[in-house]
Structures are given as structure tokens and as C-alpha cells.
Write a sequence for this structure.
């Protein structure tokens, strides 16, 4: 009797082992890629400085889809429009989630930032609330806020210094107005500084050396390592919440309608305060981490490409003249200026890898296995540098967009289901910021300035902006900038203010 039971168990065991062996032999391979070394995988082969350039090289060697090992994580990197379309758009049901961001997302943000949440009902609910206001139709209603902020930015730029801080202040002030109805006054400049200090801290967490826990999740269970990260994260979260809570409460109590109030009214019953505050905080962080950088990139490109900049200024002078500032109504009349902006976004992508996605179900693609829980990085940099789409992709040639209006838009704002919800607002602010700068200022680079990033944070690109000069084009331009700013200041408390115009969108 016993021997029959033993024989049956052994047979069952052999069957399971055999089945698994045959199954694993039949399993499709992962996409190709550089050979990983034990334990760390490919982590040491990826340079800290501009890692996307190395990835681009690997696409040439291995093809448009490659796999890497970062510690124990499998990372699949996508390098052209077709594979991004197939895996991110057509198979969005399995590729719209986010991986666990243990340090940034869980320890520092306590899972309160929707951007870092998996694709689940909680994310969908917050995303619906965000999109109810952050949509292209509403973005138009906020244009007066951008115009007013831009006038202030131009006025501040007359000092010929600290350009990044003028951009930061412009963005921070515009978003304070929209989110809380509190336009930042010059005396509260520390507000934008505080936000940028916190952002700088968070940005560093993207570096590979700060991502050990993300690369080796097993370290979570190692006493000490996880504890230190959690403790630092908790202190940061507390400070961040205290700061933003004060701003949000002010917004909720304001007599003027604002986005915080609109979102608050749409919250499902039982929503925790931290989730609501997290949703607003991430939007402030998103705007403040991207737009000043993009405006800096544009200004840097003005300085580095004088011939193309002259063409932008000639177009603006012809269409707008010197007697008034640019407005949004000018948008359709400035094809070369629009082309210049597209070329900046193509060449200097702020998010070279967009934001990481996670695969929720094993999938087969091009004969390769895309395993469940793999991280997917759609490499926007590679899409923008694809020489089958853009001739001489490394050259700065705005004219290519004028000559060929059918070129695909630069990969900048990510991809469907997780596409950047602030896209329309960002495009408006970039358009008016860029056109106004070119209208009023000349930019000049030092000889040694380069387009390469001065700081690179694995997933983010920050340009080097310290080495160019800028000055107002003529006394006539200066006089208009001064006059417009003074008038705008006088109007702030009147019924002509941008805030009261935004109010009219309420219904
Ligand atoms: C030039 C400016 C900007 C750029 C280049 C940019 C780029 C991106 C990219 C690449 C993503 C990831 C998309 C994906 O996973 O496929 C993203 C997500 C996001 N962006 Fe932007 N963004 C910009 C401005 C803004 C602004 C002004 C806001 C403010 C509302 C914003 C809010 C967000 C949020 C909340 C997400 C997360 C979406 C999610 O829940 O997954 N962004 N952005």
C-alpha cells in the first residue's frame, strides 16, 4: 500500500518537474540586449551621464526592443514608434501600470501621488478628477493667467540675470493662481524656492545610487537599509504635507473659484485627506519640475542657434511688430516659431524615457517574452532621434517641420492611458513664454557652452543653462514690457484680472 502511494508521489513530482522543464525550454527568450553580469545585471554598463545615449547605441546593435537586468528587475526598453505603438498603445491593457517605486513612491510620497500608482481603480478615480479640469477645453480658460505671468517674467528678465529663477517664478506663480487663487507675490519668492528645494531632493532619488532598494527589492527585508530610507522618507513627507496643506487649505477657503475647490467637490465619499493633498502636490511638482526646465532649454537653444533665432524674431516682428506683446491669437501665424519649439522638444527631451511602466500580464511580442512585472521604458529620446523618421536627427533644424508638416510630433508627453494630463497647459505656457522671450530679448552663448546635460538623473534631463547671456532687444521693447507690467499690476485687483476671467469659467 505504502509503496503504491510513494510511487504515485514520485511520479507526480517527476511530472511537475518535467513539465516545468519542458515549459521553460519552450519559453520564448527575452528581447536581446547586452550581457548582464551576475547580481548587478547591466547596472554598471549604464553611464550616469545621459544614459539614454547609451541605450540609443544599443538599439543600433540589438534592434528596437532590448532587455536589460537592473539588479533583479527585468527592464524592457522600446526604441522606435512601431514597438511603442504595439506595446504601449495597442496592448495598453497590460502596459499602463507603474512599477513599485519603493523609495520615491512608497517611502517619500507614501503612495499618495497618483502618477506613481499602479493602473487600478484608485488611480482611475483620481485621474478622472484631474482630467475633469485639466483638459484642452479648460486650458484655454487659463490663458489670461499665463499672459499675466508672462508679463511679469519679461519685466523680471530686464535685470539680465538669474534666468532660471525667473522661469521658476513664472511657472510657480501661474500654478498657484490656478490651484489656490493665490498669485505668488515677489515677497513670497521663498515659496517657489521651497518647492524647488523639495523637488531637487526628490529628483536625486531618481539616480541609480539612490535606487538600490528599487533594484534589489529583497533589501526591503534587510534590517537597517529599508529602515533608514523609510525614516528619511517619513520626515520628508511630513515636511512636504505641512507645506502644501497650508496652501491647499487657503485655496479651499478662498472666495475665488480654483482647481483645488473643483477637485475637492468631486472627491468620492471617504477619500483620505492625504490622497487629496497628494493629488494636488504632484501637480505642483509636475509643473514646477518640467516647465522651467523646458523654458531654459528654449532659451539655451536661442543662444546656441543665432541664425534660426533670427528667423524666429523676423517672423515675430513681421506678424506682431514692436508695439504690443504676443498673444495666443498669434499662434496660427507663426509657423517657423512653432517649428523652433518642436525642434527644441525633439532634441532636448525632458523625460528621455517618459515614466516607467509595468507589465501586468506575460505577453509575447515579435517572438520574445515580455514577462509579467517587467519594467517598460518607452525611450522618447530614441523616437526623437530615429533617422528613418528625422533626417540628420542630431542636427538642430526647425525648417524640417516647415518643409514636412507630416512629421510625427516630438515624443515629449508620454503615451496613452498615462499620457501627461498637463499637456495642454504646458503647451500654452511654452508657446507664450517662448514667443514673448524671442519678441523682447536677444540671447548670446559663451564659446564653451554645450548642449549636453549638466545634470542628469537617470530618468530626467536638466540642461546646462549658466553660460549664456540675454538682454532686451531695444529701448522700444523695454518700454512696452515696463508699461504692460505696470498695467497688469493695476488690473490685478480689478474685474479685469486674470483671476476674475478664470472665475467666469466656473459654470
Ligand atoms: C513640458 C512640460 C511637461 C512634460 C515634458 C511632461 C511630461 C510628462 C511625461 C513624459 C509623463 C509620463 C507619461 C507616461 O507615463 O506615458 C507625464 C506624466 C504626468 N504629468 Fe506631465 N509633463 C509636463 C508638464 C506637466 C504639467 C504642467 C502638469 C500639471 C498638471 C503635469 C502633470 C503630470 C502628471 C500628473 C503625470 C502623471 C500621469 C499619471 O497619473 O500617470 N505635467 N508628464
Amino acid at each position: 500500500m505504502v509503496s503504491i502511494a510513494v510511487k504515485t508521489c514520485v511520479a507526480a513530482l517527476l511530472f511537475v518537474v518535467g513539465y516545468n522543464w519542458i515549459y521553460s525550454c519552450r519559453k520564448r527568450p527575452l528581447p536581446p540586449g547586452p550581457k548582464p553580469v551576475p547580481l548587478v545585471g547591466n547596472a554598471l554598463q549604464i553611464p550616469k551621464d545621459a544614459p539614454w545615449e547609451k541605450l540609443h547605441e544599443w538599439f543600433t546593435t540589438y534592434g528596437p526592443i532590448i532587455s536589460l537586468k537592473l539588479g533583479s528587475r527585468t527592464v524592457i526598453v522600446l526604441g522606435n514608434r512601431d514597438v511603442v505603438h504595439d506595446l504601449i498603445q495597442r496592448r495598453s491593457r497590460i502596459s499602463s501600470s507603474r512599477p513599485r517605486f519603493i523609495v520615491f513612491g512608497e517611502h517619500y510620497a507614501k503612495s499618495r501621488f497618483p502618477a506613481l500608482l499602479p493602473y487600478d481603480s484608485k488611480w482611475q478615480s483620481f485621474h478622472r478628477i484631474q482630467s475633469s479640469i485639466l483638459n484642452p477645453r479648460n486650458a484655454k480658460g487659463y490663458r489670461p493667467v499665463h499672459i499675466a505671468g508672462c508679463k511679469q517674467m519679461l519685466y523680471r528678465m530686464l535685470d539680465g540675470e538669474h534666468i532660471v529663477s525667473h522661469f521658476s517664478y513664472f511657472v510657480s506663480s501661474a500654478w498657484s493662481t490656478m490651484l489656490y487663487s493665490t498669485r505668488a507675490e515677489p515677497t513670497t519668492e521663498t515659496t517657489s524656492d521651497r518647492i524647488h528645494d523639495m523637488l531637487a531632493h526628490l529628483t536625486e532619488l531618481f539616480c541609480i545610487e539612490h535606487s538600490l532598494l528599487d533594484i534589489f527589492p529583497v533589501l526591503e527585508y534587510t534590517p537597517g537599509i529599508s529602515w533608514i530610507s523609510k525614516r528619511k522618507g517619513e520626515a520628508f513627507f511630513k515636511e512636504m504635507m505641512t507645506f502644501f496643506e497650508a496652501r491647499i487649505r487657503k485655496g479651499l477657503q478662498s472666495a475665488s473659484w480654483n482647481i483645488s475647490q473643483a477637485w475637492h467637490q468631486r472627491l468620492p465619499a471617504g477619500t483620505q485627506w492625504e490622497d487629496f493633498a497628494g493629488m494636488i502636490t504632484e501637480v505642483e511638482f509636475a509643473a514646477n519640475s518640467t516647465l522651467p526646465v523646458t523654458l531654459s532649454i528654449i532659451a539655451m537653444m536661442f543662444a546656441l542657434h543665432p541664425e534660426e533665432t533670427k528667423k524666429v524674431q523676423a517672423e515675430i516682428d513681421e506678424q506682431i511688430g514692436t508695439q504690443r506683446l504676443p498673444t495666443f491669437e498669434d499662434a496660427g501665424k507663426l509657423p517657423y516659431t512653432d517649428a523652433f519649439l518642436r525642434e527644441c522638444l525633439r532634441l532636448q527631451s525632458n523625460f528621455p524615457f517618459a515614466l516607467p511602466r509595468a507589465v501586468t500580464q506575460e505577453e509575447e511580442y515579435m517572438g520574445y517574452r515580455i514577462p509579467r512585472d517587467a519594467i517598460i521604458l518607452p525611450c522618447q529620446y530614441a523616437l526623437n532621434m530615429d533617422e528613418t523618421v528625422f533626417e540628420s536627427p542630431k542636427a538642430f533644424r526647425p525648417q524640417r517641420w516647415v518643409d514636412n508638416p507630416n512629421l510625427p510630433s516630438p515624443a515629449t508627453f508620454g503615451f496613452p492611458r498615462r499620457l501627461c494630463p498637463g499637456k495642454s497647459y504646458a503647451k500654452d505656457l511654452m508657446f507664450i513664454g517662448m514667443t514673448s522671450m524671442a519678441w523682447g530679448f536677444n540671447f548670446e552663448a559663451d564659446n564653451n557652452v554645450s548642449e549636453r546635460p549638466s545634470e542628469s538623473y537617470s530618468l530626467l534631463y536638466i540642461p546646462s543653462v549658466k553660460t549664456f547671456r540675454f538682454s532686451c532687444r531695444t529701448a522700444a521693447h523695454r518700454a512696452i514690457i515696463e508699461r504692460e507690467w505696470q498695467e497688469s499690476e493695476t488690473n490685478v485687483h480689478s474685474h479685469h484680472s486674470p483671476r476674475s476671467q478664470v472665475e467666469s469659467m466656473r459654470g
About this structure: The chain has a mean pLDDT of 88. The chain is about 55% helix and 10% strand. Residues 114-115, 127, 134, 282-283, 286-287, 290-291, 294, 350-351, 354-355, 412-415, 418-422, 425-426 surround protoporphyrin IX containing FE (CB under 6 Å). The longest helix spans residues 273-304.
